[in-house]
Amino acid sequence: MAHSGPMTDWRKARLPVIAFLAPATIIYTLFMIYPLVDSIRLSFYATPSGGEAAFVGLDNYRTVLADPDWAATFWNSFWNNMKFFAVHMLIQNPIGIALAGILSLPRLRFRNSYRTMMIMPTMLSVVIVGFIWQLILSPVWGVGADLLDIIGLKSLFGPWLGKEGSALITLSFISVWQWVGIPLMLIYAALLAIPDDLVDAAVVDGATHFEVFWHIKLPLVFPTVAMVSILTFVGNFNAFDLIYAVKGALAGPNFATDIMGTLFYRTFFGYQLQLGNPHLGATV
């Protein structure tokens, strides 16, 4: 009986933990883990025309990665996705860090107004964003050429969304414009959590605002920057909506904006004369 007290207390303390974690764990398992595991299982099967699903091992992976009819499309979408991610990683996140640093300046006026304007695009529908930027960049009725003409750069304007060499980078910049508020707010929140004593001590020692940010604040928010980088990677490889809204399922021109999301859509659900293949879709 002497040992039953601590054991009973431990079990009682564990019950609230289980009660709080169980709902989230069950929901995450049902809607995330199970579909992922089932997709992996599905990728090892194939369904002949009019037949039943049969186990084919790694044949679907060989088809996607090496078959002449599939490999070029897969690797094109993969490298396009890597370029899409690189633009967000090298442009969006540094801009978010810089803007968060500016917003954290102690004497900045209208801080709340700036913060609201920067976060507003993230609240817009991707379809609306795509439609607006199509209008702005249209060579026929867009205002892009007029805006560049104001600063003497009208000669640089072109049908950027219609050229193979510029369509993907243009869509990447549109996506950066919409989502830069996410890393901005995460890093801004981390900057606000830094103790004022550290900043005050550096200012007393003669450090400038930039030196305080570069040598004190930025190293302290590196864990948040790392988390933002992971979210950027995951988000970009799940990207689909902007490409689909602006360029459609074929991700034109000539698949120049095709990424893994649009390839998955065409493969899994089919498009025009291409029948859907859930097994190859799961492989993708």
Automatic annotation (TrEMBL):
GO annotation, cellular component aspect: plasma membrane
CDD domains in the record: TM_PBP2
Organism expressing this protein natively: Thalassospira lucentensis
Major subcellular location class: membrane
SUPFAM superfamilies linked: MetI-like (SSF161098)
Recorded superkingdom: Bacteria
Gene Ontology biological-process annotations: transmembrane transport
InterPro entries associated with the record: MetI-like, MetI-like_sf, UgpAE/MalFG_permease
Protein name: ABC transporter permease
Domain named ABC transmembrane type-1: residues: 78-284
UniProtKB keywords: Cell membrane, Membrane, Transmembrane, Transmembrane helix, Transport
Transmembrane segments: 17-37, 84-105, 117-136, 168-194, 214-234
Localization per Swiss-Prot or TrEMBL: Cell membrane
Topological relation to the membrane, as annotated: Multi-pass membrane protein
Family: Belongs to the binding-protein-dependent transport system permease family.
